[in-house]
Specification:
- This protein is mainly α and about 325 residues long.
- Residues about 295-305 and about 305-325 have low confidence and may be disordered.
- The protein has 14 helices and no strands.
- The chain has one domain (about 5-290).
- It has helices spanning about 5-35, 40-60, 70-90, 100-105, 110-120, 125-145, 155-170, 175, 180-195, 205-210, 215-240, 245, 255-265, 270-290.
């Protein structure tokens, strides 16, 4: 028989595992949706669904949004961390595999660690620089091996832009979290990101009528699963266990995303992508481990991540929330 503590730990780690699986599945969902939608149309429909659902708890008073004085920064972060992230990731995935995209996005913890140190005026340690160098070396291998042939694939650089977008989103949100809840900020940024996607998806209403039902259901899943359910599960796990323990689950996300894409889409990562992935994840682990522990703030997440991240990644460093993603 399991003790109360053991059952609690199993439930907690089960929630974290399910959150990672849901977030990992977002990459395959995006790839499937891109068969009929443009990246802008897919992102706009996905986040419109999420926004429509989240309007209900906001209107009911269950979720309180940030005060009006914070909305200029909320809008800016929503545009960068959601709109720009989703667009660049989507366009990257028109040419690179799910596994390659997931590995590149997994650089976000390391980039966020370095960016946070720069913002605080801290010196970046030699170990952090070495870790980032190894990680970006892995991305270089992925850039060469992400396509069907061994050649330079410039679209991989779009995924790198997404990494920097989600890192900026998480580093610069700290002032807002001092005045509002993590849930309130996340929902507000989803609203802002959805608004930022509107100019890029003006053809969406006409497109929906001609899209197969299977793709529409996959986008609905993206709007509900990775964007909302994954976030709730992750924060439930973080509320019951140390962030360092829960966040370690995120390092398997590229592997899980690749496995889902292999089963559902028949995508098999190339040898160079696999090798580059090992270097990239190893470099990220070294970078995060080299970051100095500091004050812990409340977790914020956006699928894959949003939330992106989303754009979804946690790291124990100064001024950075213990959960950064997504979502892809």
């Amino acid at each position: 028989m399991f003790s109360v503590d053991n059952r609690r730990e199993l439930v907690t780690l089960g929630a974290a595992t399910l959150a990672v699986v849901i977030w990992s599945s977002a990459f395959a969902g995006i790839a499937y949706g891109l068969k009929v939608f443009t990246p802008a149309e897919l992102s706009l429909l996905r986040f419109s669904i999420a926004s429509a659902i989240l309007v209900v708890p906001v209107a009911s008073g269950w979720i309180k949004l940030p005060p009006l004085r914070d909305w200029p920064l909320v809008l800016a972060l929503g545009f960068v961390g959601i709109s720009l992230y989703q667009l660049t990731l989507g366009y990257a995935m028109t040419r690179i595999s799910v596994g390659a995209a997931a590995v590149v996005i997994a650089l976000a913890p390391g980039v966020t660690a370095a960016l946070a140190a720069v913002r605080l005026g801290e010196r970046i340690s030699k170990a952090t620089m070495i870790g980032l160098g190894i990680a970006f070396g892995g991305v270089l291998l992925i850039t060469v091996g992400a396509g069907r042939q061994v050649r330079f694939e410039p679209m991989t650089l779009f995924a790198l832009v997404a990494v920097f977008a989600t890192s900026i989103y998480f580093v610069f949100q700290k002032p807002l979290l001092a005045r509002t809840s993590a849930v309130g900020f996340t929902v507000a940024s989803i609203f802002a990101g959805t608004l930022g996607l509107v100019p890029f998806g003006l053809d969406l209403p006409a497109k929906i009528a001609d899209v197969p039902a299977a793709q529409l259901w996959s986008v609905a899943y993206l709007g509900v699963g990775p964007t909302i359910v994954g976030y709730l599960l992750w924060n439930f796990a973080l509320s019951r266990a140390p962030a360092s323990k829960v966040s370690s689950f995120l390092y398997v996300q590229p592997l899980v995303a690749s496995a889902i894409a292999w089963v559902c889409l028949g995508q098999v990562p190339s040898v160079l992508t696999a090798i580059g992935g090992l270097f990239a994840i190893g470099g990220v682990v070294l970078t995060v481990a080299a970051s100095r522990p500091a004050q812990v703030v409340r977790p914020v997440a956006v699928a894959e991540h949003v939330l992106p991240r989303s754009h979804a990644i946690a790291r124990p460093i100064a001024s950075v929330p213990q959960r950064c993603c997504p979502e892809t």
